[in-house]
Design brief:
By secondary structure, the protein is of the alpha/beta class. The chain has seven helices and 14 strands.
Length: about 280
């Protein structure tokens, strides 16, 4: 099976001899055993140019990747159009560690180029919209902060849960977490809306949950590449204290946490489970 490619295509702090902004296409395999890069004037930065470059990268690599993974929303839109006629799928994904490290290294190298312009530049910066309220018709009966042990987590893998997302690389043993570490999370009793709620969550692609202290306090879901949703707001001090504990436990667990949706609190059936990790 061919590895996936991690891809970024966006403007850089560079200009050509005519003063036009330069874009750069970067392609890499997860272990950097294949890389490809090319600059492009902003006037030519479109899906047609990108498709041609992907075809050239295919010839150089000798294979089409299993998929193309993209973390930048602007890149995703162009890539999806460019790949319509190509035998490869496009997958939005935030945690592209190899590509992001390469982008950081390139940022340190750009000042050596004649085309460099000294301007503020953050290679991984993404414009994020203000959090939006989740659809009211999907709100469950109640929710709470919680924590489970490694054993509890393993048991979820054996449950007949309709929507289950436990990436192997996020398992505590893969992260080197001690068995004594409690994994924090949020449990939602969805009631009659339980299945509709998990279907909506699956479509939004949960990435991480965050407790935000304020007036009121909030529980925010980061999803997709840049989406943010308000799952709950509250002023109760007991819940706020539980939110602080949730964030402390996340830090102790290398960002690992979970989102569980169930019909009720009987603990007999579950509707959806996501194992998540906050960005480092």
């Amino acid at each position: 099976m061919s590895p996936s490619w991690q891809v970024d295509f966006y403007r850089r702090p560079l200009r050509d001899a005519q003063g036009n902004p330069l874009w750069e296409l970067l392609i890499c395999a997860p272990v950097m055993d294949f890389t490809y890069g090319e600059f492009c004037p902003q006037s030519e930065a479109n899906a047609q140019w990108l498709r041609q470059q992907l075809q050239l990268a295919h010839k150089r690599a000798g294979y089409w990747p299993e998929g193309i993974e993209v973390f930048r929303p602007q890149t995703l839109t162009l890539i999806e159009v460019a790949c319509r006629d190509l035998p490869v799928s496009v997958q939005p994904r935030r945690d592209l560690a190899t590509l992001k490290q390469w982008l950081r290294q390139r940022t340190a190298w750009y000042p050596n180029l004649d085309t460099y312009i000294d301007e503020p530049y953050q290679p991984l910066a993404i414009d994020r919209p203000p959090p939006a309220p989740m659809p009211e018709q999907l709100m469950g009966d109640r929710w709470r902060f919680a924590a489970i042990s490694n054993t509890n987590l393993l048991s979820f893998q054996q449950e007949p849960i309709p929507i289950l997302s436990i990436p192997p690389w996020l398992m505590p043993v893969e992260l080197g977490l001690p068995s004594t570490v409690r994994i924090p999370g949020v449990v939602i009793d969805g009631g009659r809306q339980s299945m509709r709620l998990v279907q909506w969550l699956a479509a939004t692609q949960p990435v991480t949950l965050e407790y935000i202290a304020g007036a009121p306090n909030g529980l925010i879901l980061e999803a997709g590449l840049a989406d943010r949703w308000i799952l709950a707001t509250f002023e109760d001090e007991t819940v706020a204290e539980a939110g602080k504990i949730f964030e402390h436990r996340k830090q102790a667990a290398q960002g690992l946490h979970f989102l569980l949706v169930q019909p009720d609190d009987a603990g007999v059936t579950y509707t959806g489970f996501w194992l998540l990790q906050a960005a480092a």
